[in-house]
Amino acid sequence: MGTPAPWSVLLLAVLVGLCTSPVAQGKPNFIVILADDLGWGDLGANWAETKETPHLDELAAEGTRFVDFHSAASTCSPSRASLLTGRLGVRNGVTHNFAISSVGGLPLNETTLAEVLRAAGYSTAAIGKWHLGHHGHHHPIFRGFDYYFGIPYSHDMGCTDTPGYNVPPCPPCPQHSAATSPTNKDCYTDVALPLFENLTIIQQPVDLSSLVEQYMEAAARFIQQARDSSRPFFLYLALAHMHVPLQIAPPPDRGIYGAALREMDALVGHVKHLADSCGKGSTLLWFTGDNGPWMQKCELAGRLGPLLGAWQRAQGGSPAKQTTWEGGHRVPALAYWPGHVPAKRSSHAMLSTLDVFPTLVALAGATLPPNRRFDGMDVSPVLFGLSDVGHKVLLHPNSGAAGKDGAVEALRLAQYKAFYTTGGAKACDGSIGPEEHHRPPLIFNLDRDIQEQEPLDVASREYQAVLPAISRAYAQALEDIATDNTTVADYSKDPAAVPCCSTQHVACRCHAPTSHTASLDQHTDGRATRLCLNVHTVHGHPTQTRIKTRGEQGQLFTYTYSS
């Protein structure tokens, strides 16, 4: 790896300090690392052509690799909502991405994994990308997390001073005057990207070049405080990698994407050291991704490996992120827990990010929330190597491609994959596959055709034999959803909901503090129950900002700032 970065040397010093702290006994610690837009072929352990992931490959060698593991959706917000609730978007209400001006978020009557674990005695933290609502009660501090440090949505949803690599590129934040209209309509120039610590914006725009260092420092601080309190901890680390823009200085012998992938790999290696710092066997580390690569980003998109979605490619358009093709939702997954999860093992059980919630709840000795059904299941027997049997059926929702957002457009039954709708996602060449509805469905045998190239002939004996079972499974799944307690997310927008640390400066620009010394329990032990940010205006000009928050005993605190 060459000369270590200065922040990695500092981290080693922190690790020494961690080992002097008391270790929580009984319940295991949990670290869930969620990469962003990572391709199944981006791990060397999955795809031999990949050479930039030595730490992840080591994690695979010392733990278990899951080769048939799937995200619950193929885009950001729905995938994250499902991981933290164990329920598909058609149940929890999160069917597409939230905006920077979204008023709502993950519905408040949905219980998060952090809420269950905190009630079971865990210290909880979310570090990194949230994208499940940032306004009012939807902020992670009010969704079960004692501590939050990160960006409220994707890091391409706000301008920065050093934009990094994107396709097409976006301009930096304006410095002193109003933003000019970018040639790329997907660029954000009016509002800078904010970085939060708990409820406070500590930097806007974010310095993307220091984000890895800041995330690692925040993780080390949180684990230190959890150990000082002798409580087990749950750390949800949602990385910016490998989503664009990629902020990296690539060496001459390696491309931009490969350099960013190597940086992410090094970060995971440091997290593994954190997990091992006070004795191996006390912490389960679960690494996976939120969805497949964003193919319209061309050379800045991840590697699909064998998951080519060849049938869709022949029609035009992408077979990856946003879609129900394997490249959109089959993601890398590794579990590491010395003494519990077998080493050097590859599991072929069909699993999902939906399983993280019920599995960790079971391992913590807690109980699932009542009065709702879950799409995930406790897969601890698979983790422990006692079984290699996962789901028989998996549902794949539309995540921004053709069809209705959140609707189940594909279904997996054993080795068979049925598509009811295809098309609608943009490829690198700009093509968008035509929206096609398939009745009867397209069916692929993934055991023979992982590239999803040739659907079964509808007249074949194999198709006719499997179609009734697929149709029954599809009908039963839709009936189960229709009779469940489901919710609907609020996707309304209001400019006042946009995070802005200073309405007096262009793009909401403000200076970062000189040090990050905020206590993890500075907001009524991290458990205040209400946050409102209201910007009052006169003739369009801000005059007053008011923040209201309620403590655990119901007391109301109001802070008003004049502009």
UniProtKB/TrEMBL annotation:
Keyword annotations of the record: Calcium, Disulfide bond, Glycoprotein, Hydrolase, Lysosome, Metal-binding, Signal
Signal peptide limits: 1-26
One GO MF term: metal ion binding
Record-linked PROSITE patterns: SULFATASE_1, SULFATASE_2
Pfam families attached to this UniProt entry: Sulfatase, Sulfatase_C
InterPro entries: Alkaline_phosphatase_core_sf (IPR017850), Sulfatase (IPR050738), Sulfatase_CS (IPR024607), Sulfatase_N (IPR000917)
EC number(s) stated in the UniProt entry for this protein: 3.1.6.1, 3.1.6.15
Location in or out of the cell: Lysosome
Tagged with keyword Signal: yes
Principal location class: other
Reactions that this protein is recorded to catalyse: an aryl sulfate + H2O = a phenol + sulfate + H(+); Hydrolysis of the 3-sulfate groups of the N-sulfo-D-glucosamine 3-O-sulfate units of heparin
GO-annotated cellular components: lysosome
UniProt cofactor(s): Ca(2+)
Matches recorded under SUPFAM superfamilies: Alkaline phosphatase-like (SSF53649)
Sulfatase N-terminal domain boundaries: 28-366
PANTHER family: ARYLSULFATASE FAMILY MEMBER (PTHR42693), ARYLSULFATASE G (PTHR42693:SF42)
Family indicated by similarity: Belongs to the sulfatase family.
Stated name of the protein: Arylsulfatase G
Source organism (scientific name): Gallus gallus (Chicken)
